[in-house]
Amino acid sequence: MSSTFTPDELERYARHILLKEIGGAGQQRLKAAHVALVGAGGLGAPAALYLAAAGVGRLTLIDDDAVSLSNLQRQVLYRSDDVGAPKVARAAEALKTLNPNVTIQPYAARLDAENAEALLAGASIVLDGTDSFETRFAVNAACHALRLPLVSGAVGRWDGQIGAFKSGPTRDRPDAERLPCYRCFVPAAPPNAETCAEVGIVGALTGVIGSMMALEAIKEIAQAGETLAGRLMLFDALGGEARTVRLSRDPACPVCG
Length: 257
Ligand SMILES: [Zn+2]
Description:
The N and C termini lie far apart (about 40 Å). Helix 4 runs parallel beside helix 5 and helix 4 packs across helix 10. The radius of gyration is 18 Å and the shape is globular. The protein has 10 helices and 8 strands. Strand 1, helix 4 and strand 2 form a beta-alpha-beta unit. Strands 3-2-1-4-5-6-7-8 form an 8-stranded mixed sheet, with helices on both faces. The longest helix has 20 residues. The protein has one domain: 3-Layer(aba) Sandwich (Rossmann fold), CATH 3.40.50. It is an alpha/beta fold. Bound molecules: zinc ion.
């Protein structure tokens, strides 16, 4: 399997190839994979850095924001010089510098229900690190329609959560084998949803959850271990505790029911 890697790639990915759960075959799958990241902020930045470093062949970045000074406390892709510049353009440059083997497709666009399927088509897996329920619902519906696995992360204050949703890839299976979508878990936007801009966020916590999103993508692509599909991990940074709960499918879900 490793015969199609250059000597530089073999050295760059040596620590992955040593792992029996990844190896040459898993590294080939990473090279052949296309990960779409919705949001290039606190969660998307560390996720993109680790996925580029890991040798994922193609990364699509979707974000219509410009870098602001208050982003730099946690959005580790950007530097002080980047303030005012479009995030996806600067992110593409930084990721290319980290690993020139990776093809980066930047879209300075806001994903919505109208364009979601067009933006995500062709991806092998989607990571959602946005903080808008409207966007999250659009990403989830597109992933279900396109049969794509979705890894979704969220943070606020000192708390983080991450789940994987595979209603799309399991939609044609018998009922008992179908997995929940994001909308089974969050049927409607909470009335008093808070954003990090309103309540604050510990910068390093976005690194924890964003890195876990990259980790779940790597596991899914390399077919290593047990992914979080059908489960949700909740991380309490102040208490230093994590727990995982099972999610069930809602037969009345507006997306996958
Ligand atoms: Zn559902």
